[in-house]
Amino acid sequence: MLENNQLAPDFEAPDAHGNVKNLSDYRNSKNIVLYFYPKDDTPGCTLEAKQFTALANAFADLDTVILGVSKDSCDSHQAFMDKYDLSVKLLADTTGNMCESYGVWQEKIKNGDRKMGIVRSTFIIDKQGILQEAMYGVSADGHAQEILDKIKQL
Fold first, then answer.
1. 13 pairs with which residues across the strands?
2. 67 near 35, Cβ under 8 Å?
3. 64-70 and 89-92: which strand pairing?
4. How far apart are CA 35 and CA 132, in angstroms?
5. Regarding beta strands 121-125 and 64-70, do their DSSP bridges make them parallel or antiparallel, or are they unpaired?
6. What's the start-to-end Cα distance of the chain, in Å?
7. Nearest alpha-carbon partner for 48 in 139, 150, 110, 123
8. What pTM, to 2 d.p., does this model score?
9. Residue-range domains of the chain with CATH
10. How confident is the model over 34-52, as pLDDT tens digits?
11. Do 99 and 105 meet the contact criterion of CB atoms below 8 Å apart?
């Protein structure tokens, strides 16, 4: 797992429109909130995305872009965004490379069954590409506000 104050792993993944986004796209210009979530259009993931969307202008005022990541496809992301009028950018990590490099692809136990999946996690990356926060196993509700409060302290 990643730790605070280390260089953030580079990434490359398409957004819902198929435009490829990289960590270097934001270097020296924007802070990044990179949040990983299990699946589009599920209760916790929807709540989290809606709360980040509600605070999007406050994040933008702090030179911060919000990037949500799951293994869902670009089409799935677009349908999710359209259904809930989401304004956050969602990246499609269909290969799982981002999930692996950020350490969020982990064994999960649900109802006694073990399977691999995305552990809800958030990373705050500053304008220089350094991890200011590496948070694993976060709760969806209220998380966007918690992250905004942390961004205000950068």
1. 21
2. yes
3. parallel
4. 13
5. unpaired
6. 22
7. 139
8. 0.96
9. 12-152 (3.40.30.10)
10. 999 999 999 999 999 999 9
11. yes
**Structure-block tokens of residue 82:** 């359209």
- Least Cα distance to 86 among 129, 128, 53 occurs for 53
Three-class HEC string of the chain: CCCCCCECCCCEEEECCCCEEEHHHCCCCCEEEEEECCCCCCHHHHHHHHHHHHCHHHHHHCCEEEEEEECCCHHHHHHHHHHHCCCCEEEECCCCHHHHHCCCEEEEEECCEEEEEECCEEEEECCCCEEEEEEECCCCCCHHHHHHHHHHCC
- Residue 111 — very low, low, confident or very high, per pLDDT cuts 50/70/90? confident
Residues 6+ apart with CB under 8 A from 48: 35, 37, 68, 120, 140, 141, 143, 144
In residues, how long is the chain?
154
Do residues 74 and 16 make contact, with C-beta atoms less than 8 angstroms apart? yes
The residues carrying an active-site annotation are 45
